[in-house]
Amino acid sequence: MRKFFTYRNGILHAESVSIPNIAESVGTPFYCYTTAALEHYYNFFQSALKGLGEVCIHYALKANANIAVVRTLANLGAGADVVSEGELRLALAAGISPQQIVFSGVGKTPEEIAFALQTGILQLNVESEAELWTIHRIATTLNTVASVSFRVNLDIDAKTHHKMTTSRKEDKFGIEWRKIPSLLQSAISLPHLKVVGLTTHIGSQITNLQSFRKSFMRMRDLITQLNASGLPIRRLDLGGGLGVLYDPDSAADLPPSPTAYAAVIRETLGDCHCQILLEPGRFIVANAGLLVTRVLYVKEGSNKIFVIVDAAMNDLIRPSLYGAFHAILPITEPRLDMSRQTVDVVGPICETSDVFAPQRSLTPAFPGELLALDGAGAYGATMASTYNLRRLVPEILVKGDKFSIIRRRPSYKEMFALESLPPWL
Ligand code: LLP
């Protein structure tokens, strides 16, 4: 959805700010997010849930954990889904209250568990029996009661990219659904544990409602079974996963609207008398961000044209890691009568996989030109690295006709500051 990034007088703008103006001020590459888009996607998601009773949105920080982005969402009432002490601390610093935070992940360390318990978060989503006993031990030492929700492995294929499906029995996530009743039975008698509900998350970038429906039905069956055995469930965390449209020119993989997604929740779990928690990440932020880059060279290979840009796979790894599609927008609006060329848009990193767009039809690129990778607001900056000793790129937040640097480019000195030579060198 490009309505927050539009051409004005032939130049790409984020809201009312021209992208070349930002480039001039901060240099390239950089991430650019817009406040209006963040607010739009959050509000759109939230309003789709009206009618579902008590629903809480716990934004999944892993999608984009910049403090200004999280604060923008916190101001709209968002809670957080975190998966590390770092994300928990960031959520708190962004203004999210502990009672709006859930903590997921298969490998929480004892230190992270202790920190979460001391902070007094809403719930820890437990992913294994071993983790449950660790939480109990730590809660006992701290003389507190840990609120836990059991993450269920539903043995369901979310039918998304195989690296983003999380609830098949061969996946590392969650506790096998058949084991839940007996584990719950043993947990409820423990004084330092309070089982507050069940959780699931079947995967990410899901574009078919059928997978959601199947998983929610299985959750429903489980709740019915537990209720019948005197183990009432009153809170359900249904995870994230709703897909977004990355390629507006393709009819394939059209994601369902949040309204259709909410209808499936209502249809399957509407009469469960449970408070519903959701953990959307991508849906809120993906289309609120661009990665802006500059063309360095255009190189004619023997059978291909390479457009070499100054951003690389270390800045946005999704195309290299998942073969993900990101639309490429020229910053100067292309005229309809302009010819097109099929090119590979690649980064400077010394890896053949450093390709943003293989065999993409674009208007002819020229050195110095600015391009933007669309849909880069989710899993872009958060997955960046300094591979090839490239500096992390700045992040910019636009609001109306203003923009602000919400993460600056580090100096090389800062980048190397944590390294030191051993005494023998
Ligand atoms: N909750 C849990 C427990 C999760 O593991 C995730 C994502 C979410 C919520 C948020 O899911 P979303 O609404 O964003 O789909 N790096 C991949 C995506 C990995 C998602 C991991 N877990 C990508 O770039 O597409």
Total helices: the number is 12
Contiguous low-pLDDT stretches (5 residues minimum) are none
Mean of all residue-level pLDDT scores: 96
The main sheet comes to:
9 strands, mixed
Please name the CATH topology of the largest domain.
Answer: TIM Barrel
Key features?
25% strand, Lyase, Ornithine Decarboxylase, Chain A, domain 1, 21 strands, 12 helices, TIM Barrel, 425 residues, binds ligand LLP, 8-stranded parallel barrel, alpha/beta
What's the gist of this structure?
By secondary structure, this protein is an alpha/beta fold.
Question: Can you give a write-up of this model?
Answer:
- The chain has helices spanning 19-26, 35-48, 67-75, 85-93, 110-119, 129-141, 180-188, 209-228, 258-269, 282-285, 318-322, 412-416, and strands at 5-8, 11-14, 17-18, 30-34, 55-60, 79-82, 101-103, 123-126, 146-153, 175-176, 193-199, 235-237, 275-278, 289-300, 305-309, 328-330, 341-346, 355-362, 370-373, 395-399, 402-407.
- The chain has 425 residues and is of the alpha/beta class.
- The protein folds into two domains: 5-33 and 286-416, Lyase, Ornithine Decarboxylase, Chain A, domain 1, CATH 2.40.37; 35-285, TIM Barrel.
- Strands 4, 14, 15, 16, 17, 18, 19, 20 and 21 form a nine-stranded mixed sheet that branches. Strands 5-6-7-8-9-11-12-13 form an eight-stranded parallel β-barrel, surrounded by five helices. A three-stranded antiparallel sheet has the order 1-2-3.
- A hairpin with an 8-residue loop joins strand 17 and strand 18 (355-362).
- Helix 5 packs across helix 6 (129-141) and helix 8 packs parallel to helix 9.
- The chain is globular.
- The model has no long low-confidence stretch (mean pLDDT 96).
- The structure holds ligand LLP.
- Ligand LLP binds at residues 60, 62-63, 81, 104, 164, 201, 204-205, 239-242, 279-283, 318, 379.
- Ligand LLP binds next to helix 10.
